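Tokenised fold entry reproduced for absentees:

. . .
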Amino acid sequence: MIKRQTTINRIFKISGIGLHTGKPVNLEFLPRREFGIAFVFNGQMIPARYDMVADTRLSTLIAREGASVSTIEHLMAAFYFSGITNCLVYIDGPEVPIMDGSAWEFYQGMWKGGVYEFPENGVYLKVQRPVEVRHKDAYVKIKPLNTLDITMSIEFRAPVGKQKKRVTDVENAFAIINSRTFTMLEEIEAIQKAGLAKGGSLDNAVIIGEDDVVNPHGLRYKKELVNHKILDLIGDLYTSGYRILGKVEANKTGHYLNNMLLKELFSDPANYTIY
């Protein structure tokens, strides 16, 4: 387990295209002494925090004083898995690049960048009381536990159907990092009509057809889709600013409910302890 605050050991860069904008974007990662992850876009620093989230449709978007950065969830998950608590991310576009649709390439960049440890603590948030948010049959809830334990359930039309997965050793769940985002074939036209997914392709997303996966090489894992939902959840939970310790149960959750869970969690200081 990560014991103290950390940052990257050296500057590195990553480039790609935005999933929704379809435009090239460059990231530069810089060490940071101050606690937390923050993006810098158009001269504006935006903390990657739950209270900065301004939109949760199809991705998690943070905003501050007219500047915004979207699709941060995969990168935030990579920070979590890399054990990085402090970092500045300079970005020259309004959306984090989609890369291959997972968090793997971000994770590799951080691994090459190395980790520098500070003596400061304050890294973990331990849940002290059960907290739950729901919308119809979708929900996400968390209760006290000494580690992060996640059970995720999803349900889509055939051939996906219902999938459920529990991850107990989250910090070492590398199959989660490498699982790609996905969408249904019939949803693509509507998404593109809304001016989104301009950069989407079979190289950065799993497309679910009528009978099978459209991607020529299929899935990376049998439960890649539910894996990715866990990846999204981990990225969203890391916008708490801390490595959360608790038992999470989620059903059909998405970015909106993930963010609402954090707002409910932080609404009462008796819900948690930070150390």
